[in-house]
Amino acid sequence: MPKRFKLTRRFPVAMTEDGYRKLRSFASEAGLDEGEALSFLFENFDAVTDDEQLAHRLRQFNATLDARKR
């Protein structure tokens, strides 16, 4: 039986403009709204990420995070 799609929580999220633009683009291409697209990405996180690239990109993001918050 398929999982029922039910929004269980709402939480405030801070996103960069680039991140939100890419989320909207992905959602549009997939025929989803932004919330559905985020649910898909997190439910399938291991399948849609490359472990080596994820670690590298995360290090890059963390290195610039303080400057981006200002």
TrEMBL record:
Task: Identify this protein by name.
Answer: CopG family transcriptional regulator
